[in-house]
Structure formats: structure tokens, C-alpha cells
Amino acid sequence: MAARTALIYSNRFNTFDYGADHPFHVQRYQLTYELMMAYDLIGTVGREVHDYPLATEEALQGFHSAEYLAKLKEFSADSQPRADFRFGLGDVENPVFEGLYDWTLLGTSGTVEAARMVVEEGYDIVFNLAGGWHHAHRAKASGFSYLNDAVIAINSLLRHGKRVVYLDIDAHHGDGVQEAFYDTDQVLTVSLHESGIYFFPGTGFEREIGTGKGRGYSVNVPLVAHTDDALFMKAFDEVAFPLIAAFDPDVLVTQLGADTFRTDPLTRLEITTHSYSYILRKLKALRIPWVAVGGGGYDNMNVARAWTLAWAIMNGISLPPRLPARFQGLIKGLGYQNSMLLDAMHWAQEDDRNRALDAVEKSIAAIRKTVFPVHMGGHGKSAR
Q: Which of 8, 181, 256, 324 could form a disulfide with 128 if both were Cys (CB 3.0 to 4.6 A apart)?
């Protein structure tokens, strides 16, 4: 039986602007939608959700402080540049612009709606393109993130009595989400990311495993530069997949950032569509109700290719390896020369790869020692 799926997309995703020199470009959403249409994935599979209710103030305050939310609203209403570094607002990384609050609330509300549709309407998979703001903290913007949509949506799932796995495959550690659930055993957070030794946000090490009741419920696999497809799949297969199965969640929430790709301008991992789609196919095979959100990716064509692949996999569709001719014509006018959807499996250079292999094996060994006993004892599943 085909999965019951929905894609959350709004034309309003493209009406805001971080600034011409900022690495985050909202045009990624329209480009992704255009590629989905070119592959005939729009209007033929899944439900499209273009309008949805905005998250309530009460829902936002389930994680964010009232003072922080008030400052976001105040700055959002002003056409003049503003800054308040106590809240991480107004620097180069987290610019303030008119309509900022509306923009971040729109994306956040899409993730909350995705969670509602899975729990209340019985959808198998709902994908919100404009989600994935995993760096936002309780009272501080960080890493281009102002509201933490995943935390707010997961809180709504917890209110329904659900146990949740949050899996983050973005190149950056999902620090804001980990922070929110660091002391609970109702949410298992798993993040595969570039190592914080030299990379933003400087967190996400193997020793960060949670505290109190949450000890063993935060899992981090830091990957060093030049980690390639085979090593990314190894980290997923030997850490993330068995822990997800052992935890046996009611709902799976995934952040699907595409900044792991080897041509991303901000990162040094060497991932391609090969391992990215491998992970998505394995997640789909679990048949766990699934809320998916976008995330990072600073090459717009990588983002469009990754999320189009994700939507196809969610709907059980195999796509041809070349981009549709009409889409190639469209993007050439925008300065892109891409012709392929799918990449061949990539192997890093031998010396680089050996260092990356050593690092991932050390991480896996540490996690097996500290985290696996929490989940693999007894009957092989986390206690409910």
C-alpha cells in the first residue's frame, strides 16, 4: 500500500530575504518546487498543503521565552536595521529584516502542522520544506535560526503522549534540539554532523549523551572533514539505525539538510545523493509515522536535488538520473549548469579518508560503550 503523504509548501516562503551577501537564500524553496514539478511529483502524488494555521503564542512559549518572542516581533515590525546581541539578533549571521517574525513563524507553523497531520489525520509522511531551524535556542537566535520549529512540533507530539526520535543529518550539529530534550527519555535525539572541533556550532561530541532521565538519549556522531558516502552510511547503519529501531518511537522527526554535500560552499564533508538517498530509503522502510523538515544547504541546486529525491523516495518513486530538459533550460537562465539529479558514489582521497575512517570508528566505539547499553539491554528495546 502506498504511503499517505503530504508536502507543505507556500509561495510566501520566497517573499523574504536575508540579504544578498547572506549564504542562506530563500530561492531554494521555489527551485525545489520547480524541480518537483518538472519530475511530475506535484499534483500526482501526495497532498499539497499551501495554507495552514499559524502556531499559537502558547505553543511558541513551550520552548521560547516571552521576552525573546516580544523582541522578535518588535524588530520584525521595523524597516530600519536593529540589533540586540543578548538575543543573537542583528549580527551578520542572524540579520533582522522587516517581516522577520512572519517569516520564521510561517516555517515553524508548517512543521507544527506536519506533526498534527501525522498524529490527528493519520498521515504516514509529511514533509515541510521550510523547516529545520535546529540552532534556535530558548532566548537566542543562532545559525540563521530564530524559532526552533522541530522543538515546538515535538512538544506538540509529547502532549499527545508520543515518544519521538529526532534524527538530524544536516552538516551542523542540531544543538538547539538537543538542548531542549537533554534531560528527557521521551525524545531520542541523534545527530550526524561535521565535527565541532573546528566547525559551527562547536558542540555535538560523543560525550554529550544527556543528563538525568535523559542520560543515553542524546547521541552525536561528529564527522571530520572528507567523510565520504561510505563513511556516512557506516555512521547511520552502525549508530542511528539500530538506536531508532531499539527506541521504537511513535513518530520519527528528521532534519534533512543538504549541506553535507561535497560541493556545499560552507562545509567540508564529501557526501553525495548516493548516501543521502540510501538513508532516506532505510528510514522509509521503517514505516514509522514521519515528520520531515528541510534544513541547511548553501548550494541551491544541491538543496533542490536532495529534497526532490527525498519527496520521491517518500512516495516510492524512482527518478531518472538526469534532470528534466525543461528544468535544465530554466536553471541555465539562472546561471546553473547542472544536468544530473543523481551522483555516483564518492570516495575521498586515501589519506583524507583514512583519517575520517579512524574518527568515525572511534565515535562508534564510544557510543556503543556509553549509549547502547541504555537501549540494547533487556528485550532489546528502550523501556516504555
A: 8
Write out the catalytic residue numbers: 173
Cell, residue 49: 498543503
Q: How many domains does the chain have?
A: 1
- The cell numbers describing 203, all together, are 558542540
Show the cell assigned to 301. 541546486
- Structural contact between residues 162 and 177, judged by C-beta atoms closer than 8 angstroms: no
CA–CA gap between residue 202 and residue 207 (Å, rounded): 13
Residues counted in the chain: 384
List pLDDT tens digits, range 331-384.
Answer: 999 999 999 999 999 999 999 999 999 999 999 999 999 999 999 874 334 545
- Indicate whether 183 belongs to any domain: yes
List strand residue ranges (DSSP E) for 163-259, in order.
Answer: 164-168, 187-194, 218-223, 251-255
Which of 369, 165, 322, 349 is CA-nearest to residue 253?
165
Asked, for residue 382, whether it belongs to a domain, the answer is: no
Q: Are 186 and 274 in contact (CB under 8 A)?
A: no
- Give kind and range of the element (H or E) at residue 5: strand 5-8
What share of the chain has pLDDT > 70, as a percent?
98
